[in-house]
């Protein structure tokens, strides 16, 4: 089985500040760079850059609201990320189980 992993998506999620932004947006439903920067130890400009990365990965979408942009999580894309993460986890579980079986076989032969 070959798993198709979206590197841009995982690169976007890989940053702790971007994960925190997603958490805030999920909790509050919507946020602007200004309201989000009030909740984080980074500037509004840094929040805007992080939101741009999340937007390019499709994890959030923006709607103009006066001089600001209101961001919301794209739940379909986030669900896709969760499915990919679960699939990666299953794949690694299978690999680790195979390694365990090989190690047990080697031990049995050595002690045999």
Strand content: 5-15%
Give the strand tally.
Answer: 2
If you average the pLDDT, what whole number results?
A: 90
For the terminal residues, how far apart are their CA atoms? 35 Å
**Strand adjacency order, main sheet:** 1-2
Q: What is the H/E order?
A: HHHHEEH
Shape: elongated
Unreliable parts = none
Number of helices: 5
- Helical amount among residues, as a percent range? 55-70%
Structure description:
There is one protein chain. The chain is mainly α. The chain has five helices and two strands; from the N terminus they run H-H-H-H-E-E-H. The chain has a two-stranded antiparallel ribbon with strand order 1-2. The longest helix is centred in the last third of the chain and has 37 residues. The model has no long low-confidence stretch (mean pLDDT 90).
């Amino acid at each position: 089985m070959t798993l198709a992993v979206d590197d841009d998506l995982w690169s976007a999620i890989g940053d702790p500040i971007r994960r925190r932004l997603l958490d805030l947006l999920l909790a509050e439903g919507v946020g602007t760079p200004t309201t989000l920067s009030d909740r984080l130890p980074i500037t509004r400009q840094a929040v805007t850059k992080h939101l741009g990365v999340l937007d390019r990965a499709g994890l959030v979408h923006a709607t103009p609201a006066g001089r600001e942009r209101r961001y919301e999580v794209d739940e379909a894309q986030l669900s896709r990320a969760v499915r990919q993460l679960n699939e990666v986890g299953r794949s690694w579980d299978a690999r680790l189980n195979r390694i365990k079986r090989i190690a047990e076989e080697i031990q049995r032969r050595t002690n045999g």
